[in-house]
Amino acid sequence: MTLEKLHALFLEHPIICTDTRKIEENCMFFALKGPNFNGNAFAKDALQKGASYAIVDEEEHRASDRTILVNDVLETLQQLSTFHRNHNKAKIISLTGSNGKTTTKELINAVISKKYRTIATQGNLNNHIGVPLTLLSIKEDIEMAIVEMGANHKREIAHLCQIAQPDFGYITNFGKAHLEGFGGVEGVIQGKSELYDYLTSHGKYVFMNADDPIQQDKLATYSKKMGFSAIDRTYYNIEFVEANPYVVLEVEGIRIKSQLIGKYNFTNCCAAILMGKYFNVPLEDIKAAIESYQPKNNRSQIMDKNGHKIILDAYNANPTSMRAALENFHAMDAPDKTVIIGDMFELGPTAAEEHQGIADLTEQLNFEQVYLVGENFFGVDTPFQKFKSFADFKEFLTHQPLKKGTLLIKGSRGMALERILENL
């Protein structure tokens, strides 16, 4: 079947499913493969549960005329998404970076949707499967699609750019994330910069943080760009006011008070404001969008529970974001500060050094109480209490409840430190 014919079928059945536990009536089931599963084996089940068509790449699973055989299901899904992206009029804004991608994506969507019909990546569906699914969710009336791109190896962003073919792009930052896959910080810079490489080589428009020397260097000679700066007034000036605890900024004489904690969220707000300015969203609408946005899904959430004021930032962590969170917590005007931090994953050979560095920083910042959780932190040299596993820490809390006060909880997704809330 040609791509054109497959796309015509998709327009008649515009729901994509890749999991037979989530089959929707009249969807198209794509039989993807993974290290521990083979979707081909579930094609018949998908049809029985209500799927209109099943796309497979193994002849023996071609069960009926509603089963479409292709060479490679994943490649077909990606090619179909690119075809659909070009079938529609929506402009694509792509973003990547080491930290803040999802928050920035949500802020951009909040701002741009004040004037345009938009869609944005759901959750963090930002990989070689998630990006195609986002593109395939673009309806005919959508004007802007904000597409988040994640990667833990070089060439991944380049591949996602070939699929999404973005018209605009922005990189949040270059930090110590996925060092194991990228092979170090230089690898991170090269890998994330693949978005700018694609945009500049195709004459597309670039948004930038002009206060980031790496971005300045990468885009020094490129003309189709717009940047924000808190320092250089030759760029769009956005002034940082405070983050105690919420980020407050000023632009064109108008003060914007966000519901985001931490100075590290200042540039995330700036990116959304910059794009709003470029796309002619009225400044009062930009202000309303930023001020009404509330973080969720364990990302910089503030809550009160049983006498504790909690900063829950347990969605993910790497050395860059961990350092920023700790320094921000130190600068906050808050009583009785307690820190609970969990292991940072995917650091490869640098894991021991990076965890020791965070432990040393935490000691310098003089918090009232500090607890380190996870195998990596268990191996550091520190005066703080260490726990090899979450279970060990949970057991400790049953005998020694935490002192009432202000609590920072941060760790990598695999640590799932939000479980602590059940034990407060």
UniProtKB/TrEMBL annotation:
Residues 299-377 form the Mur ligase C-terminal domain. ATP binds at residues 97-103. Residues 96-275 form the Mur ligase central domain. GO terms for cellular component: cytoplasm. Its EC number is 6.3.2.10. Pathway: Cell wall biogenesis; peptidoglycan biosynthesis. It catalyses: D-alanyl-D-alanine + UDP-N-acetyl-alpha-D-muramoyl-L-alanyl-gamma-D-glutamyl-meso-2,6-diaminopimelate + ATP = UDP-N-acetyl-alpha-D-muramoyl-L-alanyl-gamma-D-glutamyl-meso-2,6-diaminopimeloyl-D-alanyl-D-alanine + ADP + phosphate + H(+). Residues 16-81 form the Mur ligase N-terminal catalytic domain. GO terms for biological process: cell division; cell wall organization; peptidoglycan biosynthetic process; regulation of cell shape. Keywords: ATP-binding, Cell cycle, Cell division, Cell shape, Cell wall biogenesis/degradation, Cytoplasm, Ligase, Nucleotide-binding, Peptidoglycan synthesis. It holds the Pfam family Mur_ligase. It is found in: Cytoplasm. One of its GO terms (molecular function) is UDP-N-acetylmuramoyl-tripeptide-D-alanyl-D-alanine ligase activity. PANTHER family: UDP-N-ACETYLMURAMOYL-TRIPEPTIDE--D-ALANYL-D-ALANINE LIGASE (PTHR43024:SF1). NCBIfam families: murF. Belongs to the MurCDEF family. MurF subfamily. This is UDP-N-acetylmuramoyl-tripeptide--D-alanyl-D-alanine ligase. It comes from Flagellimonas sediminis.
